Amino acid sequence: MLRQLWTLTRGQRRPLVAALLLTLIAAAVGVAQPLAAKGVVDALTAHRPLLGPVAVLVLVLLAQAVIGAFAAFLLERTGERFVLGMRTGLVSHLLRIQMRAFDQLRVGDLMARASTDVAALREALTHVSVQIATNLCVALGSLVAMFVMDPVLMLLILGVLLTAGLVINGLSARIGRVSMTLQTAVGAISAGLERALSALRTVRANRAEQREIDHLAALSHRAYDAAVHSARLTAVIAPAAQLAINAAFVLILLVGAARVDQGALSLGALVAMLLYATQLAGPLTELMAGIASVNRAKGATERIQEVYALPTEDSGVPTAGRGTPRRQPAHRAPSTASLEIRDLRFGYSPGTPVLRGLSLTVPPHALVALVGPSGAGKSTAFALVNRFYEPWSGSIRIDGRPATDMGLKEWRSHIGWVEQDCPILHGTLRDNLRYAAPDATDDRLWQALDLVNLTHKVRRLPAGLDSEVGERGARLSSGERQRIAIARAVLARPRLLLMDEPTAHLDPANEAALTVNMHDLRQECALLVIAHRMSTIEAADTVVMLANGTAHATGTYAELLRTHPGFQRLVGGHPAGVNGARRS
Length: 584
Ligand SMILES: Nc1ncnc2c1ncn2[C@@H]1O[C@H](COP(=O)(O)OP(=O)(O)OP(=O)(O)O)[C@@H](O)[C@H]1O
Fold this sequence. Notes:
The chain is of the alpha/beta class. It is 63% helix and 9% strand. Helix 17 links the parallel strand 7 and strand 8. Helix 6 packs antiparallel against helix 8 (209-262). InterPro entries: AAA+_ATPase (IPR003593), ABC1_TM_dom (IPR011527), ABC1_TM_sf (IPR036640), ABC_transporter-like_ATP-bd (IPR003439), ABC_transporter-like_CS (IPR017871), P-loop_NTPase (IPR027417), Type_1_exporter (IPR039421).
């Protein structure tokens, strides 16, 4: 546990060690305090001058206060720096994790890891770890001083304290286990809340508010039960430590008084022993509470370590092949195609292929439509072209250059992608349009809006391009969201534009306009379009029909309609079928 914590302190170790040293110095000065007090008492009883011992005592007290304050500040600042580093580190790791890993996770839970888990860890890492180290030193220092004064008495006290320590250690281990349950429950609450809030309209329309509330309440109860369990265990720790200290006190008074009586111990030494016992009380209780607190942070540490263990995109080798990467020849083939997919095989889980040797070509400035029944693998093919996943085998080339020849950023800079549900990000229209092309001028933004028939609409808005679109573009209609998404993709001037049924949310007028615009777009780039609508299919130069994970048939719309019964069924047999093409 402490080793895990130590790994996480990377980057903060120097200030942490400095704070620790200062706290230790403050604590050491504190250890000297009873000795200074002993000096005063001994001077009093021996009728020696008091000025010197009193001055030493005052100096010791002042030094402890000043060094202690500075150490406390340094520690707080280190804690905040740790939180800063941890949050930025986690966020940058999370945004780069491989899609395959991301598919297994819940967004709300990931958000909890970057917020509540980091906060829990900060407490353990800075405050408590320093607290444990200093209190341990203070306790050891006090025990050594006691040993020097009266070994017999000290060993008796040590026996009492060790017994208490063993009991408390057992409790702390249980706290560690409960803390994992607690942090996992907190993560589940965040995930549940994210699920419900991100689909609030669906929740309302299905009258599922109460069910979602009950679900979240059940999760909250699970967190509550774990927290109360942990509190119950923690509550025992302070009294147990206190009990041990009190027993030590009684021992010192009884045995110590007897030993003073026998002349084995001076009165000053007895006073010092009592002061050391008083001084032991605080550190020992805090030490035990600190160990419990570190154990409480165990859950948070594990959850954060789990995030760091997730593979990032840059940690994967950009190449085809399931296991060992097989480099493609790096030469640049003559650019006869904007996109060339050869014999692509891929599945989301081993042994279940979705694409079983897909091959297709998109010539420069061509519009190719990808059609096929639902679940045939059209979106999967797009995800592979975007290199969100690495194929099992096969190759993808853009302008003759294989995927293995380019880093992910460069590869994706050649591709524009208009998703099926067209995610729009919170912010203004301008923010959204410039998302892939941050340097685009307003003139270019208006040209792109023109292309998707939105100029008129945006000009009428009071704030124009600065209009807020709302969370996930909630203030736009779905057709508008789709058109903004298209404009956004086009603005980045990609070599290849991937569109997942770009006319899906458009009315007939806008659908017709976009079909014309797609023809214009071909001047700039090649288009590969997942098509469900007749207008899109008819507009394509080539239609590739995907079935069973392969390109089942390829040809023009007219050819396929004439020669391919499967295609006839797809576009004609089920005019409004699941994924059958629809006439608008
Ligand atoms: N992230 C994923 N993890 C696991 N399986 C997935 C994932 N995405 C898709 N699949 C599965 O892969 C298969 C192909 O899905 P895909 O989305 O590529 O089909 P599609 O042809 O685009 O369908 P549609 O026309 O309905 O959008 C489906 O069986 C689907 O359940």
